[in-house]
Structure prediction request, 121 residues.
Amino acid sequence: METMRAYWHDCGVGPGSDAPVDVTLIQAKNIWSDCSPVEGNFLGLIDSLGRTIQFCFTDGVPDHMEDARHLKIVLLDFPIPEKSGSYSRQVSIGEVHKLIDLAFNAAADHLSFPGVNFVPW
Prediction:
């Protein structure tokens, strides 16, 4: 998969899910890397079949922490509106780039991401 459509929220900046933009793998990783690690900030990617994968900070990084890659404060989320829920799991900040790689290679199919569980809304 060469591109996906992306939307994000970085402290109020970024296109909404109603106006996603085409991004390459490198651009998606750069958007995530540039995203402030603040609770509520997120990156969403939409594949060619309209499936969505989201990475959302569920907490912020403490000011005194220099390396936060190990913190499991990112929700990996696959919303499934027709089932009124999501497949999701908590992941570390350091895992997200590999998960973005997987999304570009396998699309936003929750079956390709081990360990996700269905959670009703």
Remarks:
- The mean pLDDT is 95.
